[in-house]
Structure formats: structure tokens, C-alpha cells
Write a structure and sequence with these properties.
- It is a single chain.
- Helix content is about 25%, strand content about 25%.
- By secondary structure, it is α/β, with parallel strands linked by helices.
- The protein has a 7-stranded mixed β-sheet with strand order 9-8-7-2-1-10-20.
- A hairpin with a 4-residue loop joins strand 8 (about 170-175) and strand 9.
- It starts with a strand and ends with a helix.
Length: about 475
């Protein structure tokens, strides 16, 4: 008889795990909602508002059904705090590319080499060019693209509450069904894939119920990607035709981050967005254009009105969606910055609302570092920067990228994290975590590709363990 596995969460990692494990195990997925939408529980920001809607997703496919599915790899030094090396993850990154996009890692890398050469030829110093960001032409809801609705995967709608632990082993899951009634599911293995905000709450509740001091780090070490439109520049070099580099052989587009870093480990990247002239009356302070809103709600009147009111948004739609590269010397700089995690508990349960609290802190010292790196980056771009203007109070407009990470981080010991190098929860033999919460560091890179690789790696580990 096959062993039973419960996967909490039908998002990116949960979908991959369910598809990979269904051939070997009896798989049950517990998901908050039957349909895609924003998180189905209250979420409160007590320090810095997220600024994005939806903040996170629920339903089959999770946020993979709502966002653009940009694929980008971490840099080599981002793995310094990981208990595994980049080389260990590399085979799974290669496997994740076609799973998420239908395109091979090698083909994407080949196209990006061509794009790098074009940027260098047009005046961007090669040392400033980071890892390429690949947007597949069509985003994928992993639950549907993997055909999970047609597989032998049981789906239970409800809200997971905590693990059931006996003698250092998990035996099941406590949850509330979609009518709010308490219930239990028994299993041989439980995997938490509820995301960087929900998985730590499940670990905290489990630690409290069973007095597990080894899980003290749950909810700490939170990192995200502060992002925003921070400046406009006029460039001498022609870059408007390669900012969103389309290639038929990869059925998608590549974008180039321009990167600066300091000795503390902080990194920033900026992505160019073709724009109109530098003007004090044309401030672009939104974290995103209307593209995301239009993609999810193409007939939403407010989004269409916002598009019509912005020359920069219209230009971006024509370029990003239709491939029309309108000549311009002006660009908006879209910032995506890294964070260095700290020890304060950033994610925890709200006792009053029974929701999630996120305490995301961006200090003045941090924004000063970002400002210094931005100035350094513009200086290193040399003579191609003819004019620049930082938006007023850009520091106040930094928002979340919704890449909630680190709250159940992988580590070498329970002093620094919640799970080991195999994603197994410290102190619980057959319980695992696989989602953004396990990532110890993320640099400036979108997290989806890395999460997918970890899910594939954990799937192999569990199948080998069961053999």
C-alpha cells in the first residue's frame, strides 16, 4: 500500500510536488479556496504596507495564476547562507525551466548571452549586468498546466492549523474545512507549501502545541524585495529596442538587470522602462504599471482609465505586449533590491482576527544604502547617462514584491532556521517545508524558479527515501 502524503497549499511548489509524487504516493492537497483570488484570510501589515494587489494568492496554482511568472536565477554569492550549494540545485533548475515555460535553460542562456553583448556594445559596463529575467510568452497556472485536475490527487478545501506530532514524527494535520468545522487528516508525510506568510504560522502553532523549542526561528529572518519606480534618466545609448528582448526560439522576452552592490551584502538592480521626457509633472511612482491589473482583469474600467492617463504606461504596453519599440532617449528605472534578514519575528498570527501579521521594516539606514548604490550605479554607467532625476520621496514608495521568503529558512542548525538541507523540519522526522519560506537569501531574483527547483529536489528525495 502506498504511503500517504499531505501537501498544504496548491501553489507553485505544492502543484509540482503533487504532480511529481502522485505516481509513488497517495497524495492529498489541502488548499484554502477552490478558485483563484487573493489570500482568503485577513492579512495586516503593521510596519510597511505591501502596496500590491493581490498581496498573495490562493486557489489552485496559487500566485502562479496571478503574476507574470518571471524566471531568473540567483547569483553565485546568494548561496553563501544556504546549506546546499548552487551546483546541487543546478540539475533541478534545468528541469524547472521547461516545466515553468516550455523552454530549456540552455536556450534561455544562449539568448541572454546575445542580449548581454548588445548591452555592452551600447555602453553598459559588463560588470554591471546581472542574471537575465525571462518572461515566457504565456504564463502558466501550474495546477492546470500539470494536469492535476485529471490526476489521482485528492483535494480538500480548508484552512490548515497545525501538524500532529507524536514521538518526533508527524502523524497528520489539524485543519478547518470550508465550513469552519475542525477536522483531522492522517498521513505518513506532511509537506507545508503554504507560502512565506502561512507556513511559519503552521510551524509556530505546532511548536506551541507540542513544546518544540527547535522551531523558535519560525517567522524570523523575513526577506522580501523592496521595489519601486525611483527615477527617470536620459541616455545617450539606444536601448529602447532591447529592453524587452523578444526571441521566437524561446517564446518569450528577456530583460536585463543593471546591478550594484556594497560590502555589507546589499544588492540593488534596476530595470529600464522606456518613457517620455524627464518632467517634474510626470512622476511615475507606482511599483508597477497597469499591466498586471489589465492582465488579471482586462475589462476593468479603472485599469483602462489609468492606462489612458499615462503616456509611460501606454508606451510600456505597446512595447511589452505588442513588441512595438517606440524610439526614446528616456527611461524609468524600476528598482528591485535585496534584503539582509534580521532576527525579529516578522510574521505571526493575529490573535484578534485569526489572520496573519507581517511586520516588514525598511529603515532609514537601509534606504540611505540603496540611494548610495543608485548613485554609484549611475556613475559607473559613465557617459551614457545624460540626465537623471530621482522621484520625490522615492523612499516612501518602495513596496513589496510579494516574494515572502526566509520565514522557515533552510539552515545547518535550528539556531538559524526551521528546516535542514533536505527541507525536513528540525525535530520532526517526516515533516517538510517547500515554498518561499525556506529560501535563506534571494538577492534581487524573483523566487519562482528557485522554489520550483527545490520542489523537484524534494520530490526526488522523498521518492528515493520511499524506494
Amino acid at each position: 500500500m502506498a504511503q500517504s502524503v499531505i501537501i498544504v497549499g496548491a501553489g507553485l511548489a505544492g502543484s509540482i510536488l503533487a504532480a511529481e509524487l502522485a505516481q509513488t504516493f497517495d497524495v492529498t492537497v489541502v488548499e484554502l479556496a477552490q478558485h483563484n483570488g487573493s489570500l482568503a484570510v485577513p492579512l495586516t501589515d503593521v510596519s510597511r504596507p505591501a502596496g500590491l494587489s493581490p498581496h498573495v494568492g490562493s486557489g489552485p496554482g496559487g500566485t502562479s495564476a496571478l503574476w507574470n511568472n518571471g524566471l531568473i536565477e540567483l547569483e553565485d554569492d546568494d548561496y553563501a547562507s544556504w546549506p546546499i550549494s548552487q551546483q546541487e540545485l543546478l540539475p533541478y533548475l534545468s528541469k524547472a525551466y521547461p516545466l515553468l515555460s516550455g523552454v530549456s535553460r540552455e536556450d534561455v542562456a544562449s539568448c541572454y548571452d546575445e542580449l548581454r553583448q548588445l548591452h555592452v556594445a551600447r555602453g553598459i559596463p559588463p560588470e554591471l549586468i546581472g542574471n537575465g529575467l525571462f518572461y515566457p510568452q504565456r504564463r502558466r497556472n501550474l495546477w492546470h498546466s500539470l494536469g492535476l485536475a485529471d490526476r489521482s490527487v485528492r483535494v480538500v478545501t480548508g484552512r490548515a492549523r497545525r501538524l500532529i506530532v507524536e514521538d518526533g514524527r508527524v502523524t497528520g494535520l489539524v485543519f478547518e474545512d470550508d465550513l469552519g468545522r475542525p477536522a483531522e487528516l492522517k498521513a505518513d508525510i506532511v509537506i507545508l507549501s503554504a507560502g512565506g506568510l502561512s507556513s511559519p504560522l503552521l510551524v509556530q502553532a505546532t511548536a506551541k502545541a507540542f513544546s518544540l523549542p527547535s522551531l523558535e526561528a519560525a517567522g524570523r529572518h523575513y526577506i522580501d524585495h523592496p521595489m519601486g519606480m525611483i527615477a527617470k534618466v536620459k541616455l545617450k545609448s539606444r536601448l529602447y529596442d532591447i529592453w524587452n528582448f523578444r526571441q521566437r526560439r524561446i517564446a518569450g522576452a528577456l530583460q536585463t538587470p543593471i546591478v550594484a552592490r556594497d560590502q555589507s551584502g546589499l544588492k540593488i538592480s534596476v530595470f529600464l522602462r522606456p518613457a517620455s521626457v524627464v518632467s517634474h509633472g510626470d512622476r511615475r511612482d507606482r511599483v508597477q504599471s497597469v499591466l498586471v491589473n489589465l492582465r488579471n482583469s482586462p475589462f476593468k474600467l479603472s485599469a483602462l482609465a489609468a492606462l489612458a492617463a499615462s503616456r509611460d504606461d501606454i508606451r510600456e504596453v505597446l512595447s511589452f505586449k505588442l513588441g512595438l519599440q517606440l524610439p526614446t532617449d528616456y527611461y524609468v528605472l524600476r528598482l528591485v533590491a535585496s534584503e539582509v534578514p534580521d532576527q525579529h519575528r516578522s510574521v505571526y498570527r493575529d490573535e484578534r482576527t485569526d489572520g496573519i501579521v507581517r511586520d516588514w521594516r525598511i529603515t532609514d539606514r537601509y534606504t540611505e544604502q540603496i540611494g548610495a548604490l543608485l548613485r554609484q550605479l549611475l556613475e559607473k554607467m559613465g557617459g551614457i547617462v545624460l540626465e537623471s532625476r530621482f522621484f520625490d520621496q522615492w523612499e516612501k514608495t518602495l513596496h513589496s514584491a510579494a516574494h515572502h521568503s526566509g520565514t522557515c529558512r533552510m539552515s545547518r542548525s535550528d539556531k538559524d532556521g526551521v528546516c535542514d538541507s533536505t527541507c525536513q523540519i528540525f525535530g520532526i522526522d517526516n515533516a517538510y517545508i517547500c515554498d518561499g519560506s525556506t529560501l535563506p537569501s534571494t538577492g534581487y531574483a524573483n523566487t519562482g524558479l528557485t522554489i520550483a527547483a527545490l520542489a523537484l529536489r524534494l520530490s526526488d528525495h522523498l521518492k528515493q527515501r520511499a524506494a
